[in-house]
Amino acid sequence: MGCELGKLASRDNRNGARKFEEPTPPQVQVDPRLPLTAKQKYNMMASWKGISRAMESTGVCMFLKLFEEHSELLLLFEKFKSLKSKEDQATSLELAEHATTVMSTLDEGIKGLDDLDTFFEYLNQVGASHRRIPGFKAEYFWRIEKPFLEAVETTLGDRYTSNVENIYKITIKFIIETLVKGFENANAT
Ligand code: HEM
After folding, report:
1. pLDDT tens across 17-70, in order?
2. Which InterPro entries match (predicted)?
């Protein structure tokens, strides 16, 4: 009986008078606020699994690179501003702990690419929380962009193809823009 109905449906289709809705193809729509295509978002989330298995080492690597290029930023960190040498920084428990906290924030952000309302709310709030840091400026967020990409490259190795690099570049820019907006909007109130 089910088969009969199926035949009827297909005959209707041929005549152009469709009684049954055709199944729609799987939707590949993304939120228009997302600067990634559906495929790029999928690849980003798949690639991030490689980073989420190495959060601490990637985060420490990122901060070492940040302080290597911008040693003045070290002074903002009460807990480890006295760690002048790279060796001291690399073996500091406090720095590792902070690096993991920041990486967990990025982890939440990247997992939130599927739900941009939550993504914006969460990262705006993290951006705003930097208002409590004496001397912090919104532009400092951009200083982590290059160290982040270099640390990801170190962790992913061969998996960091030019396509993957491009997707990470778009994603970190999007995350930093959101942190900056959160910081600035908190500033305005
Ligand atoms: C991807 C960008 C960043 C994210 C996701 C991020 C995230 C966070 C989070 C979640 C905290 C709170 C930690 C806590 O309450 O224990 C924090 C604190 C802090 N962040 Fe950031 N941050 C970012 C970039 C930066 C940059 C570039 C600087 C450099 C100046 C910075 C400076 C600080 C400082 C000084 C603190 C306070 C640390 C403390 O109280 O011990 N952040 N950050």
Report:
1. 455 555 555 456 789 999 999 999 999 999 999 999 999 999 999 999 999 999
2. Globin, Globin-like_OT, Globin-like_sf, Globin/Proto
Are the C-beta atoms of residues 54 and 120 closer than 8 Å to each other? Answer: no
pTM: predicted TM-score of the whole model, two decimal places? 0.86
Question: Which residues line the pocket of ligand 1, CB cutoff 6 A?
Answer: 73, 76-79, 98, 101-102, 105-106, 126, 129-130, 133, 140-141, 143-144, 179
The CA 128 to ligand 1 mean position distance, Å, reads 11
